[in-house]
Design brief:
Elements: H1 13-21, H2 24-34, H3 40-47, H4 51-63, E1 67-72, E2 80-85, H5 87-90, H6 93-106
């Protein structure tokens, strides 16, 4: 039997925030962007998630104003996208750090990624 949460009020700030950033891959993308990975290929290699899923999550973060898409071109290559945190995205740093600290303290076997 599946139960639906009683309070699905979209005016709840926690519920509304989770609609934007409450998915595993989204949080891991943000973690990696904070760690200095800005290119699609870097994120794909680090995360190991399917390309279509990564593209979808990046698009959602750009549409939400958390990441900004910036074009770059390596010599002899076509233009590609890099992703940078916006002010809105940088405001998520304390949340990610707190989640990391909680995991280190309460989840066996966790470690800070290199």
């Amino acid at each position: 039997m599946t139960t639906t949460p009683r309070n699905t009020d979209s005016r709840c700030p926690i519920s509304a925030s989770l609609e934007v950033v409450g998915e595993k891959w989204t949080l891991l993308i943000l973690r990696d962007v904070y760690r200095g990975l800005h290119r699609f290929s870097q994120l794909e290699r680090s995360l190991g998630c399917p390309k279509a899923l990564l593209a979808q999550r990046l698009r959602k973060l750009v549409d939400a104003g958390i990441l900004a898409k910036e074009s770059y071109r390596e010599e002899g290559q076509r233009a590609r996208a890099a992703y940078a945190l916006t002010a809105k995205g940088r405001d998520l740093a304390p949340i990610l750090l707190t989640l990391q600290e909680w995991g280190l303290k309460h989840v066996d076997g966790t470690r800070v990624p290199r």
